[in-house]
């Protein structure tokens, strides 16, 4: 099993190496759940330090919709491309889609399933379609802390799966299951 993980890591490293050769700019300390879709112009994408990228993230650097009218003489030269810049210490949630011309400010979180159509300021949690800031990172940190139940860290570290399977959500907060007497 360890060999499979090692091989998967080497395969990811190789793919990132190839994308860098195509012009992708990405820091060495980024975390991937799987390889994102960097599209057909990876050289238009810059990703800063300590960026987490979940499964299914898509970077779109061009507007393919011009296909519909580009055959007309008036519009035959129309092209629409945009750079994408994800700054330091960001997290892109599962299935986030980032459109051309977007910058995501440092220390920001983009919630799962969001479509980022405009620049996101620093230090915010953004969500939705289109993605908009919904709270500051400080508010998000406090909200997360308030939603964290008291738990036994040693038990969690010992067997995360078993521990999490015993958890339940109650009133929007995760609580340990109470043993029946």
Task: Explain the overall architecture.
The chain is an alpha/beta fold and 181 residues long. The chain folds into 2 domains: 134 residues, Hexapeptide repeat proteins (UDP N-Acetylglucosamine Acyltransferase, domain 1, 3 Solenoid); 35 residues, no CATH class. The protein contains 4 helices and 15 strands. The strands form 4 sheets. Strands 2-4-7-10-12-13 form a 6-stranded mixed sheet. The chain has a 4-stranded parallel sheet with strand order 1-3-6-9, with no helix packed on it. A hairpin with a 2-residue loop joins strand 12 and strand 13. The longest helix has 20 residues. The two termini are 40 Å apart.
Throw out a few tags for this protein:
single chain, UDP N-Acetylglucosamine Acyltransferase, domain 1, globular, alpha/beta, 181 residues, four-stranded parallel beta sheet
Under CATH at level 1, the class of the largest domain stands as Mainly Beta
Mean pLDDT: 91
CATH architecture of the largest domain: 3 Solenoid
CATH-defined topology of the largest domain: UDP N-Acetylglucosamine Acyltransferase, domain 1
Rg computed from alpha carbons, rounded to a whole number of angstroms: 20 Å
Order of helices and strands: HEEEEEEEEEEEEEHHHEE
Q: What is the helix content?
A: 10-25%
Low-confidence regions: none
Q: Helix count, per DSSP?
A: 4
Largest β sheet strand count, sense and barrel closure: 6 strands, mixed
How far do the termini sit from each other? 40 Å
How many β strands by DSSP? 15
Trace the largest sheet across and list its strands.
2-4-7-10-12-13
How would you name the CATH homologous superfamily of the largest domain?
A: Hexapeptide repeat proteins
Tally of structural domains: 2
Shape: globular
Which structural class do the helices and strands define?
A: alpha/beta
Task: Tell me the β content.
Answer: 15-25%
């Amino acid at each position: 099993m360890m060999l499979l993980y090692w091989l998967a890591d080497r395969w990811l490293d190789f793919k990132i190496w190839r994308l860098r050769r195509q012009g992708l700019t990405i820091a060495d300390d980024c975390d991937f759940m799987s390889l994102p879709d960097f599209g057909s112009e990876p050289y238009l994408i810059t990703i800063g330090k300590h960026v987490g990228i979940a499964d299914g993230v898509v970077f779109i650097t061009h507007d393919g919709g011009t296909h519909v009218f580009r055959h007309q003489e008036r519009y035959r030269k129309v092209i629409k491309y945009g750079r994408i810049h994800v700054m330091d210490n960001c997290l892109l949630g599962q299935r986030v889609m980032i459109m051309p011309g977007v910058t995501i400010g440092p220390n920001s979180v983009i919630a799962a399933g969001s479509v980022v159509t405009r620049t996101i300021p620093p230090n915010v949690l953004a969500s939705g379609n289109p993605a908009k800031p919904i709270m500051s990172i400080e508010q998000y940190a406090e909200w997360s802390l308030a939603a964290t139940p008291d738990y036994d860290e040693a038990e969690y570290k010992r067997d995360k799966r078993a521990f999490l399977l015993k958890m339940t959500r109650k009133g929007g907060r995760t609580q340990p299951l109470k043993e029946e007497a």
